[in-house]
Amino acid sequence: MGRMMIVNASPRAPRSNSKRIIERFQAYWAEAAGLYPTISNKHEQALADLQGCSDLLLVFPLYADSPPSTLLGFLKALSAASISPKPAVHVIINCGFIEPEQNLVALDIIRFFCRQNGFPFGSTLSIGSGEAILDTPFSFLVWRKLKKFAAAVRNRQPVHLQTAMPIPKKWFIAASTNYWIQYGQKNGIDKQQMQTMEIEGGVLPPKQ
Ligand SMILES: Cc1cc2nc3c(=O)[nH]c(=O)nc-3n(C[C@H](O)[C@H](O)[C@H](O)COP(=O)(O)O)c2cc1C
């Protein structure tokens, strides 16, 4: 087995679902692996550390049907760097909606990046209901797939896995709506306020 670098590209890396997923992955991987949270914005150092790695694992949330900008900056730096040999790129992506298929376009974006830049594309794990599932009795579904994913990376036999909470969409929407209303109440914001374009006293500019 070669060396691995794990990139946490969540904009809220220190308290992210991505972080929890990475911690569990490391337990299954059972080898030392470098860890780089992209919000620390030390791409140059991270790319130097990537030299000689056989595997690069990107872990990130879905933002507006895409990889977050905190990953795009790193990918831009990666495409400009001369890394040799090129590590195989693996992806774990989690999204808030229940359907793991929501992540497919973002996965295609990374696949395309790899093809354009000559990186071998490895295994993927797509997680739906990512904001909720880790704190429910269904978390074992994520850990089970993660264990399979780690084994596939180790054996160099790429897999493309997905998982989510196995409940009807209607229940999920009702439960998540309740959750966010209560979350807003704790922060002194009601449902109507959450439905406006106002963010922390400012208003988003109108669409061009
Ligand atoms: C700005 C923003 C955009 C998001 N866009 C989507 C989206 O398009 N689809 C989706 O299913 N979830 C979306 N989410 C939810 C996140 O993917 C979800 O909360 C995820 O679990 C966060 O992972 P993290 O804790 O690792 O950052 C969005 C969240 C934020 C804050």
Explained architecture:
By secondary structure, this protein is α/β, with parallel strands linked by helices. The protein has one domain (4-163): Flavodoxin domain (Rossmann fold), CATH 3.40.50.360. It contains seven helices and eight strands, in the order βαβαβαβαβαβααββ. The strands form two sheets. A six-stranded parallel sheet has the order 2-1-3-4-5-6, sandwiched between helices. Helix 1 (17-29) crosses helix 5. The model has no long low-confidence stretch (mean pLDDT 95).
Strands of the largest sheet, in order across it? 2-1-3-4-5-6
Biggest beta sheet attributes: 6 strands, parallel
CATH superfamily: Flavodoxin domain
The CATH first-level class comes to Alpha Beta
Overall domain count: 1
Report the order of strands and helices. Answer: EHEHEHEHEHEHHEE
The helix-and-strand class reads alpha/beta
As residue ranges, the low-confidence spans are none
**What are the distinct ligands in this entry?**
flavin mononucleotide
| Rg for CA atoms | 18 Å
| Mean pLDDT reading | 95
Overall CATH architecture? 3-Layer(aba) Sandwich
Shape: globular
- The CATH topology annotation reads as Rossmann fold
Helix percent reads 40-55%
The percentage of residues in β strands lies in: 15-25%
